């Protein structure tokens, strides 16, 4: 017999198998989820969840699909959080400090409480990447924020009203487009294709009979 | 976290590791199977070949063809609406290009349709970006290195798909590949690069050149969040939590909108458009043959149902991809994806006895069938607590080959996923088994992205034919961008030439009549939109 435990979903008590995730436990209890569920693998950030264990005072945060239930867990999901997303034209911005100042000036109001880092469901050093953004160090901000799933829990806990996930995303787009080195072999190949240099080889391989193609495939050489 | 039995088996894996490592470092992996060996293992062990798991379609454009039982059930099911109840003269939403689905393909289509001057609306049944794209880990293929070419890529794609692929679609895939990587790069996607800008590329199963570009093991997530951001920056209308439940056609038989349903309030809406793009993704949540899935919660083949009822034929709907390495243990993440990149960067597949029983980079269908054979026929799987089996993926090899820190740098999502359950894949191997991963077949399209129904375009996993009977790793992220962009451009162009006709749902009535004539009686309504899970709760399952 499977071990059963008690949990409280939005304050209501349910008995569920101890092996389930919070998301699984909600479904076991009878919910057919529409909000607060997405990839179910920890990539999409749809299932940000706040919980507290009975008798303790600390509020904890997690992704419901990635967290196993515990006895006497009080659970509330946070499937939507009104994050601020500023609109910009990626072609017209440049990776200078001004852009953050212009779009997300509230990052300079950070009080250094570190609540964002403590709340991060991915275990990221959120306050650190905001510090990098303040200094215009976008590559560092991009790297530090890379694993962000944009669940929004950090922003929910921020006294300064910072939208951390959007700051990280802007830093990453600036890095990918403007700061990362250009890829010469890619530009060359795109130009070759544009000139039609690859057409003859493609036409040739497309003209092969099924047998010829199989022969070629079975005798391919592999890059080591 | 591992059971006693597993820990005993791990000792056997460790006992052979040094010897296996020495061989790998000398450039030697277990040999690849011959063409005959591959055919044999596929025929005997691949789920696509288990005849009892398929049904013949009795009605519709693909009448007489076999599809998975669960798919047959929803293709030949009742509409969620009675057309007589829908007032088509009431238009709740009017646009040029209506895009159904807010994943990678839908977002790429939206950006390009917007770029080409069309008014675009995306409707999506969950949130914008909640899609299989978000979960694609390993990478995206494109032939952009000097030792590679689109023709070489073409050969790999065709062979991987068992030469069933539609040549014109493969041409487009490989030809437009490099341009699409450039497009993503210019939108700000952070690809893994060397200091001089050279892309860090690896092999995937069945590739002859290292053409797998990646953004760590968040490749799809990185692409998706950039595309989503770009859609918002362009002011494109996105309507979340709104599903399309039926297509609307006009008097000429052209697609001209959809009946929508608010997922929360159940309110029905009539959306009119000059052209429609189906970008609804895959079908993992149908759990064909009882397999777990690596797919998103919304992957329920909705687009196939809508298109089929509207008269668009499917292509190769019988073929699914079972990803060789889904999580077999721990239970909490059963079926979740373990990216192929784990093998690309050195981990071998090892049985319970510590033997490397196959080359780690065969194509996905062959790998999955071979793993199933190892467990079911040869009895060399590792038993799991819920009655299944698993095979080891010897992840500690990675850092022995490429140095300490490689796992955290190259596959951080995998490391994080396992650490949550007390398993450190840097130190211990991980247990895997095939999981339902991808819908190889789908709606038939021409090279311009249009289905057999005029003005109905399709992009992404809902399309059939690009990948034949088996897709290679990294060609799906590529296909959503190539064919998503293409659908956007083509749908915008077609919209310019289209004036709205008279809306009708006559095809829904006609389909119901056809069902009746064929003697199909069912309580089932489709599209099903979301799966229902109760995790063994007797209160719900004892009905």
Q: How is the quaternary structure best described?
A: heterodimer
Taking the alpha carbons of the first and last residues of chain B, their distance comes to: 35 Å
The number of distinct β-strands of chain A equals: 5
| Total strand segments of chain B | 23
Strand order of the largest sheet of chain A: 2-1-5-3-4
* Helical percentage of chain B: 25-40%
Residues in helices of chain A, as a percent range: 25-40%
Q: How would you characterize the largest beta sheet of chain B?
A: 8 strands, mixed
Major β-sheet profile of chain A: 5 strands, mixed
Number of helices of chain B: 17
Radius of gyration of chain B (Å) = 23 Å
Mean pLDDT over the full residue set of chain A: 96
Stretches of chain A where pLDDT is under 50 for at least 5 consecutive residues are none
Kindly report the name of the CATH homologous superfamily of the largest domain in chain B. Answer: FAD/NAD(P)-binding domain
Number of helices of chain A: 10
Judged by helices, strands and strand pairing, the structural class of chain A is alpha+beta
Mean pLDDT of chain B: 96
Chain-wise SSE layout:
The complex is a heterodimer of chains A (224) and B (543).
Chain A: E1 4-9, E2 12-17, H1 22-28, E3 48-53, E4 60-63, E5 73-77, H2 97-103, H3 115-119, H4 126-134, H5 138-145, H6 153-156, H7 164-179, H8 184-195, H9 199-206, H10 210-218
Parallel strand pairs in A: 1-5
Antiparallel strand pairs in A: 1-2, 3-4, 3-5
Chain B: H1 4-25, H2 35-45, E1 54-56, E2 66-68, H3 69-75, E3 78-79, E4 93-100, H4 104-115, E5 120-123, H5 132-135, E6 140-141, H6 150-160, H7 167-187, E7 201-202, E8 212-213, H8 219-233, E9 237-239, E10 242-250, E11 255-262, E12 268-278, H9 302-309, E13 314-315, E14 320-327, H10 341-344, E15 349-350, H11 364-376, E16 382-383, E17 389-393, H12 396-402, H13 406-410, H14 412-419, E18 430-439, E19 442-444, E20 456-458, E21 463-464, H15 475-496, E22 503-504, H16 506-517, E23 525-526, H17 538-541
Parallel strand pairs in B: 3-23, 4-5, 4-12, 5-9, 12-20, 19-21
Antiparallel strand pairs in B: 1-2, 6-8, 7-8, 10-11, 10-22, 11-12, 13-19, 14-18, 15-17, 16-17, 17-18
Helix pairs in contact in B: 2-11, 4-8, 4-15, 6-7, 7-15
């Amino acid at each position: 017999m499977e071990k059963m435990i008690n949990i409280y979903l939005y304050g209501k008590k349910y008995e569920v198998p101890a092996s389930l995730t919070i998301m699984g436990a909600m479904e076991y209890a009878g919910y057919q989820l529409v909000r607060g569920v997405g990839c179910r693998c920890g990539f999409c950030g749809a299932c940000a969840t706040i919980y507290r264990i009975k008798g303790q005072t600390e509020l904890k945060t997690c992704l419901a699909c990635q967290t196993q239930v515990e006895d006497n867990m009080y659970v509330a999901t946070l499937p939507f959080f009104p994050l601020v997303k500023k609109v910009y034209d990626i072609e017209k911005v440049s990776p200078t400090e001004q852009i953050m100042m212009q779009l997300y000036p509230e990052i300079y109001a950070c009080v250094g409480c570190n609540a964002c880092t403590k709340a991060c469901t991915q275990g990221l050093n959120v306050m650190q990447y905001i510090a990098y953004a303040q200094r215009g160090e976008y590559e560092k901000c991009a790297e530090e924020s890379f694993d962000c799933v944009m669940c929004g829990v950090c922003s929910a806990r921020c006294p300064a009203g910072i939208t951390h996930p959007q700051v990280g995303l802007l830093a990453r787009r600036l890095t990918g487009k403007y700061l990362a080195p250009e890829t010469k072999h890619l530009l060359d190949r795109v130009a070759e294709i544009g000139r039609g240099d690859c057409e003859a080889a493609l036409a040739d391989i497309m003209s092969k009979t099924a047998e010829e193609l199989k022969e070629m495939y079975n005798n391919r050489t592999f890059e080591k | 976290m591992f059971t006693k039995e597993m820990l005993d088996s791990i000792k056997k894996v460790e006992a052979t590791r040094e010897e296996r490592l020495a061989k790998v470092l000398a450039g030697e992996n277990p040999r690849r199977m011959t063409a005959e060996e591959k055919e044999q293992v596929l025929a005997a062990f691949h789920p696509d070949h288990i005849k009892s798991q398929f049904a013949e379609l009795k009605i519709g454009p693909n009448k007489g063809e076999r599809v998975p039982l669960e798919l047959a059930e929803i293709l030949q099911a009742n509409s969620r609406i009675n057309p007589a109840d829908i007032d088509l003269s009431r238009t709740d939403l009017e646009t040029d290009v209506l895009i159904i689905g807010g994943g990678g393909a839908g977002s790429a289509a939206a950006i390009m349709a917007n770029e080409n001057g069309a008014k675009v609306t995306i409707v999506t049944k969950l949130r914008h970006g909640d899609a299989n794209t978000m979960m694609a880990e390993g990478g995206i293929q494109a032939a952009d290195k000097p030792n590679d070419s689109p023709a070489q890529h073409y050969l790999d794609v065709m062979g991987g798909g068992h030469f069933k692929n539609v040549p014109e679609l493969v041409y487009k895939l490989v030809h437009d590949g490099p341009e699409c990587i450039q497009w993503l790069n210019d939108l700000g996607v952070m690809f893994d690069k060397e200091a001089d800008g050279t892309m860090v590329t690896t092999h995937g199963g069945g590739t002859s050149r290292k053409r797998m570009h990646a953004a760590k093991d968040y490749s799809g997530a990185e692409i998706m969040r950039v595309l989503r951001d770009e859609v918002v920056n362009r002011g494109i209308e996105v309507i979340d939590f709104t599903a399309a439940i039926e297509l609307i056609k006009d008097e000429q038989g052209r697609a001209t909108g959809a009946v929508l349903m608010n997922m929360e309030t159940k309110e029905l809406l009539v959306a009119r458009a000059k052209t429609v793009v189906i970008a609804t993704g895959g079908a993992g949540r149908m759990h064909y043959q009882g397999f777990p899935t690596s797919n998103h919660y919304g992957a329920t083949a909705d687009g196939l149902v809508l298109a089929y009822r509207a008269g668009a034929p499917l292509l190769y709907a019988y073929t699914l991809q079972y990803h060789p390495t889904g999580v077999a243990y721990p239970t909490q993440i059963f079926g979740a994806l373990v990216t192929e990149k784990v093998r690309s960067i050195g981990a071998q597949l090892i049985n319970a006895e510590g033997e490397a029983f196959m080359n780690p980079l065969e194509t996905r269908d062959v790998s999955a069938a071979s793993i199933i054979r190892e467990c079911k026929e040869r009895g060399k799987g590792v038993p799991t607590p819920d009655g299944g089996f698993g095979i080891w993926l010897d992840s500690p090899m990675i850092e022995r080959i490429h140095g300490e820190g490689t796992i955290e740098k190259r596959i951080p999502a995998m490391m994080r996923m396992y650490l949550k359950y007390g398993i450190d894949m840097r130190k211990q191997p991980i247990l895997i088994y095939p999981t339902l991963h991808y819908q190889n077949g789908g709606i038939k399209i021409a090279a311009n992205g249009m289905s057999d129904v005029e003005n109905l375009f399709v992009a992404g996993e809902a399309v059939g034919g690009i990948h034949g009977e088996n897709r290679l790793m990294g060609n799906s992220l590529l296909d959503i961008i190539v064919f998503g962009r293409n659908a956007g451009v083509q749908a915008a162009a077609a919209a310019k030439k289209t004036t709205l006709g008279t809306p009708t749902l006559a095809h829904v009535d006609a389909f119901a009549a056809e069902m009746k004539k064929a003697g199909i009686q069912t309580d089932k309504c489709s599209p099903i939109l979301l799966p229902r899970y109760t995790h063994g709760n007797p209160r719900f399952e004892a009905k």
